[in-house]
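Render Cation:proton antiporter in 3D.
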Amino acid sequence: MGVIIASAKSAHRIIILTSRIKEMFGALFFVSIGALIDITQFQVFFLPALLVIATMLFGKIIGCGMGTKLMGYDLSTSLKVGLGMGQVGEFALIVAKAGQDLGVVSSFLFPIIGMAVGVTAFLTPYLIRFSYRIDPVMLSSHWNQIKTRFTDTK
């Protein structure tokens, strides 16, 4: 919803009237993007896609988690933020498709990004649930051991 609509007095009514259209275009977007992926080549891009997914998840967990920790939050909150940011969004599909259309991105990369978006969309809720099951005391003791190992200058 845009800023102008959100500040309108009848914003609630506009949301109700346009939500079905928004949902239809969202579904249409994912179907049209999915139609661009050649699923007969699944075995070719499966392993590279898993590598990209693992790299993205690890990078987001470390990057977002460490950024949150550096901003002064506790380790448990930092891990929750890092695990919660695991999803690769549909914007990655748009950028990959635009790059493919311009000839600057290989056509091999598009199904890999598509698979990463799909897998991380389904995986992120489980990562968030997992982040709430981690014992903060155990996490802090492991964090202190790692910190000591890397900061000790013997």
